[in-house]
């Protein structure tokens, strides 16, 4: 019986993520529109877009291969699995030990690998430019993320995310320099990985500055829907990660019962809304930077992460 | 009783070599030779596997060969059994591949006699149990592989590669010879049992470590001793490249482990680990950066071998540092990570080189700038190559990720190390490892994407055809092993446990096979866990589930059309991204410092009909600052000594006399 409940909670968390992801994207767009004094579409617009795309037929380029058709499903699967390994409203769920934080980073790497390949598949110049720049950004963002992971796991003594979240709730965390550095590094990585301003602009379609949108330019119909959904899930993943590591308050633990879970969900929704609002404010207050300044931005994130790790190697109390 | 069986198997290989010399002009000689090597290596693989899994006491054998007062000692223990598995697995798959690939060889008489001997040489190095036999077999391995590198000697680039390889191999063997000399000491006990029993002073031990690093490192491709590797490995036929890159570098790693962890024994100083760690970190990052700058597919893979050797040495360095501080449980983790990566790299690097061989047969090209779109005519080769590329980029749920994960876990338990220098070094090495993993993914997006995806960039690529079934069988054997090692890492770690115990004073990781769902939990207190099987299962379920639901409930229609490309599709394949343009952002970010990459654009004035040109200049820091000055010094010195060739007999005799007096004087003073 307990096992069945565990499966149910795990399953409902995965479904919750899938349902919430487009809403979060829509909400951020709505916040941004408000900040720019536009009316903007309703936060539910991404759902409508997705359902429209899902029902349309796919137009494949003549030179597209089987990889191009398989990649959207692979990308979606990898990101969904990664997202459902992050504790959202409750920690210590049934399969949380399946993969630790390093594996979550690597799963996102798997998704990126196939997305970049899909960008190269049709053989157009736009796809190539997107893939090449994405891999350049990732080559700095991924180590920065891993350094952040190192900082956390040196503190918590493990790379397992549920245990990290539980550790962050205990009293012996306190204010630490290394945690502050890790927080900044993680936020910088989150901005770069989700193709947000100032690294990339999620709203452009025809400028040479684009990275993510250039890779998916040839996609249409259900394939595009999956890739859009995966992108929303990735944003949700990063906000959940920030929430579960740096604001783990109000998270239920496994076996707490229905009402505790419900309270956890409500608090989780609040955290997401707050995170979305902050992201929208940040994005509207800053301009996009040139592609070849992104490496300095990401290099700074890497150095911050490394510094945090180094501090902890020197002393556990920093 | 397994050791005599192994030795007699190797005798068959030597006999096959001799037979190949005699029968090289018979039409199906190639098929016979590769059939023999396939059978022999498969049996040897089974034998080694039996030894490792049953883990009996080491077997020893002395044959009346070699030096009359020494004999040839052979020994089979867990360490040699593990490396025998690596060698013979690689050998078997390469032989299987060559059953088909070898048919296209233009000069079989230059390949067939050396191939079985090369395999025998590598096997014998692993079994040798005295310094003489070790060095003899090491040289046999070097020379036969040199002959294979020179198989296509009409090309000047190959001759240069062969020459450089020969020089570096001699240098490496010299270093090993000196290392064994120091180990044996003045008593001259050259069999490994005597060396193991003896003790070496810490100063000499440090020197032995340095010499082992030089000797084994030059064969494995540690920076800055790697220069020959990216030239020599691609020059050989592809199945030999696979063996050299995937397997021979591992024999070098074996040499290092045997000397430093086994023969040198206890007196471990902490800074040894630091030196090995630093070298490993530099090797990993520089190797992958070099690889990213290449557009010759085989050379890219060879440079990438350098990176992976760096990762292995990071694990070994950590293990040394832990052992120096008596932290044997942590050392077990680091050693397991290094050995796991040895196995993994032999799997996916062989796979990638064999895949390149299939491309080479189909198109005659290995320059990525002239390939493209091969996924359409060669879908199966493309799938196998893709699995290899994903595995080497450390992507879950494949095997490359597991060994990198274990290395990361070993790094994360190292703040316990008391030495301050290590405290600063280890996080930097962790960052280097993370950086090299991310750059490796970029490198293999480039390698696979430019070669197999897009549209063909040359007629040869457009007219390619799928490779033969032997080659495909070889490719998919390796791809399946990459997947299996990735989803069942616990079983591999358990298999490695006796090896780790042997090198680590008995300490090993806890048994993994009893964990629920075969989860990998290397250190129970730390609780960090990874389960490749479940990750694969979840991904498969959600991916196929999504596909099923969408096709059922939404839409499953699709239509072909011209590419969109923002409204400007161009039919000319030259408009695609190339290997160089793909690497341009990374070249600009990293290469401008490391390689002093400079871009120059030549734009003719209006009215001038010459095309615009973009020139990229890269400088190799290691060659320019390390090897070029040495080469210049050698040339200058030999120029000075040149007139010694034209002396009269009187002067020669007086020279001999003078040297003799000098030596005797030296002896007298020494006493």
Q: What do these coordinates show?
A:
The complex is a heterodimer of chains A (318) and B (671). Chain A has 318 residues and is an all-alpha fold. Chain A contains 11 helices and 3 strands. With 671 residues, chain B is mainly alpha-helical. Among the domains of chain B are: 1-205 and 213-267, no CATH class; 621-670. Helix content of chain B is 69%, strand content 4%. In chain B, strand 1 and strand 2 (72-76) form a beta hairpin. In chain B, helix 1 (2-23) runs antiparallel to helix 4 (114-127) and helix 14 (379-392) runs antiparallel to helix 16. At the A-B interface, strand 1, helix 3, helix 4, helix 5 and helix 9 of A face helix 14, helix 15, helix 16, helix 20 and strand 3 of B. Strand 1 of chain A pairs parallel with strand 3 (558-561) of chain B.
Based on the model shown, name its key terms:
heterodimer, A: 318 residues, mainly alpha, two-stranded parallel ribbon, B: 671 residues, two-stranded antiparallel sheet, 23 helices, globular
Give the topology.
The complex is a heterodimer of chains A (318) and B (671).
Chain A: H1 2-35, H2 45-55, E1 58-61, H3 66-84, E2 90-91, H4 101-121, H5 125-156, H6 161-169, H7 177-193, H8 212-215, H9 221-246, E3 252-253, H10 258-284, H11 291-314
Parallel strand pairs in A: 2-3
Helix pairs in contact in A: 1-3, 1-9, 1-10, 2-9, 3-4, 3-9, 4-5, 5-6, 5-7, 5-11, 7-9, 7-11, 9-10
Chain B: H1 2-23, H2 29-54, E1 59-63, E2 72-76, H3 78-101, H4 114-127, H5 131-149, H6 156-184, H7 192-197, H8 202-220, H9 229-235, H10 238-263, H11 270-292, H12 297-324, H13 328-363, H14 379-392, H15 399-412, H16 420-452, H17 459-462, H18 469-487, H19 489-503, H20 532-554, E3 558-561, H21 579-594, E4 598-602, E5 613-617, H22 621-641, H23 649-670
Antiparallel strand pairs in B: 1-2, 4-5
Helix pairs in contact in B: 1-2, 1-4, 2-3, 3-4, 3-10, 3-13, 3-18, 4-5, 4-10, 5-6, 6-8, 6-9, 8-10, 9-10, 9-12, 10-12, 10-13, 11-12, 11-16, 12-13, 12-15, 12-16, 13-14, 13-15, 13-18, 13-19, 14-16, 14-18, 15-18
């Amino acid at each position: 019986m307990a096992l069945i409940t565990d499966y149910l909670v795990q399953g409902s968390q995965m479904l919750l993520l899938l349902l919430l992801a487009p809403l979060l994207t829509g909400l951020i767009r709505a916040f941004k529109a408000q900040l720019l004094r536009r009316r903007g579409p309703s936060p539910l617009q991404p759902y409508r877009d997705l359902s429209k795309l899902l029902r349309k037929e796919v137009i494949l380029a003549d030179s597209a291969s089987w990889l191009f058709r398989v990649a959207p499903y692979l990308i979606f699967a990898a990101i969904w699995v990664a997202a459902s390994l992050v504790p959202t409203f409750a920690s210590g769920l049934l399969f949380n030990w399946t993969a630790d934080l390093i594996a979550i980073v690597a799963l996102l790497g798997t998704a990126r690998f196939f997305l970049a390949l899909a960008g190269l598949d049709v053989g157009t110049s736009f796809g190539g430019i997107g893939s090449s720049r994405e891999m350049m950004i990732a080559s700095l963002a991924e180590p920065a993320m891993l350094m952040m992971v190192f900082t956390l796991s040196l503190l918590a003594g493990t790379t397992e995310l549920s245990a990290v979240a539980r550790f962050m709730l205990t009293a012996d965390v306190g204010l630490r320099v290394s945690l502050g550095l890790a927080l900044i590094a993680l936020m910088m990585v989150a901005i770069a990985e989700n193709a947000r301003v100032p690294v990339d602009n999620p709203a452009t379609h025809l400028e040479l500055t684009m990275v993510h949108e250039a890779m998916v330019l040839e996609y249409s119909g259900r394939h595009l829907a999956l890739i859009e959904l995966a992108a929303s899930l990735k944003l949700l993943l990063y906000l959940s990660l920030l929430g579960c590591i740096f604001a783990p308050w109000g998270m239920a633990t496994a076996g707490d019962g229905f009402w505790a879970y419900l309270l956890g969900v409500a608090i989780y929704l609040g955290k997401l809304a707050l995170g979305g609002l902050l992201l929208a404010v940040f994005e509207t207050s800053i301009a996009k930077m040139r592609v070849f300044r992104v490496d300095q931005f990401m290099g700074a994130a890497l150095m911050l992460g490394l510094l945090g790790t180094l501090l902890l190697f020197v002393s556990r109390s920093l | 009783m397994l050791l005599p069986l192994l030795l007699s198997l190797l005798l068959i290989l030597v006999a096959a070599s001799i037979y190949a010399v005699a029968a090289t002009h018979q039409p199906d000689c190639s098929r016979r030779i590769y059939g023999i090597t396939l059978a022999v290596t498969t049996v040897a693989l089974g034998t080694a596997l039996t030894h490792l899994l049953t883990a009996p006491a080491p077997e020893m054998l002395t044959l009346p060969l070699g030096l009359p007062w020494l004999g040839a000692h052979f020994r089979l223990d867990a360490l040699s059994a593990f490396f025998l598995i690596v060698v013979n697995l690689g050998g078997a798959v390469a032989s299987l591949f060559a059953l088909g690939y070898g048919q296209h060889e233009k000069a079989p008489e230059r390949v067939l006699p050396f191939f079985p001997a090369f395999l025998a040489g590598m096997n014998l190095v692993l079994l040798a149990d005295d310094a003489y036999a070790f060095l003899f077999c090491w040289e046999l391995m070097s020379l036969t592989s040199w002959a294979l590198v020179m198989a296509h000697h009409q090309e000047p680039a190959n001759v240069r590669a062969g020459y450089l390889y020969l020089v570096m191999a001699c240098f490496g063997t010299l270093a090993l010879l000196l290392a064994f000399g120091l180990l044996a000491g003045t008593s001259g006990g050259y069999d490994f049992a005597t060396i193991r029993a003896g003790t070496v002073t810490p100063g000499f031990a440090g020197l032995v470590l340095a010499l082992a690093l030089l000797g084994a490192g030059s064969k494995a491709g540690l920076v800055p001793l790697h220069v020959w590797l990216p030239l020599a490995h691609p020059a050989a036929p592809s199945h030999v490249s696979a063996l050299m890159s995937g397997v021979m570098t591992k024999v070098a790693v074996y040499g290092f482990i045997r000397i430093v962890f086994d023969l040198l024994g206890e007196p471990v100083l902490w800074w040894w680990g630091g030196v090995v760690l630093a070298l490993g970190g530099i090797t990993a990052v520089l190797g992958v950066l070099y690889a990213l700058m290449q557009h010759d597919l085989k050379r890219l893979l060879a440079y990438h071998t350098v990176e992976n050797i760096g990762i292995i040495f990071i694990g070994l360095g950590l293990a040394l540092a832990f052992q120096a501080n008596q932290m044997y449980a942590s050392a077990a983790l680091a050693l397991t990570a290094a050995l796991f990566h040895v196995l993994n790299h032999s799997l996916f690097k062989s796979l990638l080189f064999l895949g390149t061989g299939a491309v080479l047969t189909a198109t005659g090209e290995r320059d990525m700038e002239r390939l493209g779109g091969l996924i359409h005519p060669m879908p199966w080769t493309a799938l196998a190559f893709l699995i290899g590329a994903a595995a080497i980029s450390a992507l879950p749920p494949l095997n490359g990720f597991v060994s990198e994960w274990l290395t990361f876990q070993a790094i994360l338990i190292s703040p316990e190390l008391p030495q301050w220098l290590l405290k600063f070094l280890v996080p930097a090495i962790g960052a280097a490892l993370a950086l090299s993993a991310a750059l490796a993914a970029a490198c293999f997006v480039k390698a696979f994407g430019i070669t197999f995806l897009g549209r063909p960039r040359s007629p040869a690529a457009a007219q390619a055809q799928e490779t033969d079934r032997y080659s495909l069988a070889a490719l998919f054997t390796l791809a399946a092993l990459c997947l299996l090692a990735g989803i069942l890492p616990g079983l591999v770690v358990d298999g490695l446990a006796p090896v780790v115990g042997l090198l680590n004073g008995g300490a090993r990781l806890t048994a993994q096979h009893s964990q629920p769902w075969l989860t990998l939990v290397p250190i129970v207190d730390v609780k960090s866990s990874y389960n490749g099987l479940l990750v694969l299962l979840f991904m498969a379920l959600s991916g196929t589930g999504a596909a099923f639901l969408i096709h059922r409930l939404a839409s499953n229609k699709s239509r072909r059309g011209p590419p969109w490309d923002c409204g400007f599709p161009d039919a000319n394949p030259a408009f695609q991204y190339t290997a160089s343009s793909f690497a341009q952002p990374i070249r600009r970010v990293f290469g401008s410092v490391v390689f002093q990459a400079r871009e120059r654009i030549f734009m003719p004035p209006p009215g001038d009909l010459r095309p615009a040109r973009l020139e990229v200049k890269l400088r190799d820091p290691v060659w320019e600052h390390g090897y070029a000055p040495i080469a210049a010094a050698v040339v200058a010195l030999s120029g000075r000594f040149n007139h010694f060739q034209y002396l009269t007999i009187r002067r020669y005799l007086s020279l001999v006399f003078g040297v003799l007096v000098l030596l005797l004087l030296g002896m007298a003073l020494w006493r």
